[in-house]
Automatic annotation (TrEMBL):
Residue ranges of every copy of the HTH luxR-type domain listed in the record: 137-205
Pfam families on file: GerE, Response_reg
UniProt name for this protein: Response regulator transcription factor
Organism the protein comes from: Tropicimonas aquimaris
Keywords: DNA-binding, Phosphoprotein, Transcription, Transcription regulation
Keyword hit for NAD: no
PANTHER family attached to this UniProt entry: DNA-BINDING TRANSCRIPTIONAL ACTIVATOR DEVR_DOSR (PTHR44688:SF16)
Keyword Transcription regulation carried by entry: yes
InterPro entries named among the record's database cross-references: CheY-like_superfamily, Sig_transdc_resp-reg_C-effctor, Sig_transdc_resp-reg_receiver, Tscrpt_reg_LuxR_C, WH-like_DNA-bd_sf
Amino acid sequence: MPDVANAVFIVDDDQDIRTSLSRALRKRGFEVQTFGSAREFLYAYDNEQVGCLVLDYGMPEMSGLELQQRLNEAAAPLELVFITGHGGVPESVQAIKSGAVNFLEKPFRQSDLVKNIQTALSLAGEKQARLQNHRQISERFERLTAREKEIVAHMIARPAEVSSKEIANHLGISPRTVDHHRARILEKLEVNSVVELIDLASRLKDSI
């Protein structure tokens, strides 16, 4: 797979389009890979590569919108720029609503495509950072036992009732047991207080 900062994937069933775009983009410093179908791209892509996907809207077997949906479901760190020779307003609206950077109709100026690719690469980098942050925080929460997760859930849902006695009353366990779990929770989540714990949970939610 190409270098992250300049990775551009072109998926178009028209060989001439793939050839002309790849030549033009490589001259501008992008690292380009081309694919003749959505399925060919999915076979090669590992769901971790960051970059811009220049995607033809109308292709046989699997359309550009279908590929976009698959990538969204996989939370792939890609940003899409659609290109099409026969797209209309409904198609472009659907593509943009699903997260595409733009929907360019052929013929388009290469300078316009380049600007959109640059925007897409910047957004893809930001998306990767959010995904990595989400993954790292999720891994901390996965360290917790079932009981520890239950206590954390109480702290998040009732931030005004986080004393050991209040949590113990709610869960039907002793305050001493809560104290033990609380210490383990803070250690596993790598935080120093309940305030930091709630903030970490909020960051997990915001990074989705």
